[in-house]
Design brief:
Shape: elongated
CATH topology of one domain: Lipocalin
CATH class of one domain: Mainly Beta
CATH superfamily of one domain: Quinohemoprotein amine dehydrogenase alpha subunit, domain 2
Number of helices: 3
Mean pLDDT: 75
Order of helices and strands: HEEEEEEEEHH
Structural class: alpha+beta
Largest sheet: 8 strands, antiparallel, barrel
Distance between the termini: 66 Å
CATH architecture of one domain: Beta Barrel
Number of strands: 8
Strand order of the largest sheet: 1-2-3-4-5-6-7-8
Strand content: 35-45%
Length: 163
């Protein structure tokens, strides 16, 4: 075997192994599980609330706590693209469909109203969104974690029962 062949036999598997690791890193799943402060701009002003997201692979579920309402959340995430559905129940049910991107502890994008068939709400006002935007910022669990740790230190006998 020539010197050139030896180098080729050594470097070719190394290059193939390196490229397979690089290709595997491209599909890394973004973790959005946790507590987020969500706000969106609509024709009636800014709406704010807290969403709690659970994540199993690319499937998202959770809840939203806002002004007077608590719709369920469902959605998906692929790479940095996210889609969330907030299903509002009641006499006139509808769904807000949020699409956007995740960038670390922030999300942003546009949303649409699903379930408003002709573009007008039940009051006769135009309800079709034109340029509605939303943002979300991850909320820290440090305070909750510190509170749990303090509780464990002060009441270790109750730890198993309550935590």
């Amino acid at each position: 075997m020539t010197n050139k062949s030896r180098w080729l036999c050594f470097f070719l598997p190394l290059v193939m192994l390196t490229s397979s690791f690089a290709a595997g890193g491209e599909n890394k799943l973004v973790n959005v599980m946790g507590k987020w402060q969500l706000s969106w701009e609509a024709r009636l002003g800014t709406e704010r609330g807290t969403m709690l997201l659970e994540q199993v692979d690319s499937k998202l579920t959770g809840s939203f706590q806002g002004h007077l309402v608590s719709p369920k959340i469902s959605g998906t995430i692929k790479d940095k693209s996210i889609s969330l559905n907030l299903d509002f129940q009641g006499a006139h049910p509808f769904t807000l469909v949020f699409t956007g991107t995740v960038d670390g502890d922030k999300m942003a994008g546009k949303f649409a109203i699903q379930g408003v068939t002709d573009g007008y709400d039940w009051h006769g006002e135009n309800a079709r969104p034109t340029n509605y935007s939303w943002t979300a910022v991850r909320q820290s669990d440090r305070i909750q974690g510190a509170s749990r740790q303090l509780f464990r230190l002060r009441f270790p006998q109750l730890q198993r029962e309550l935590l």
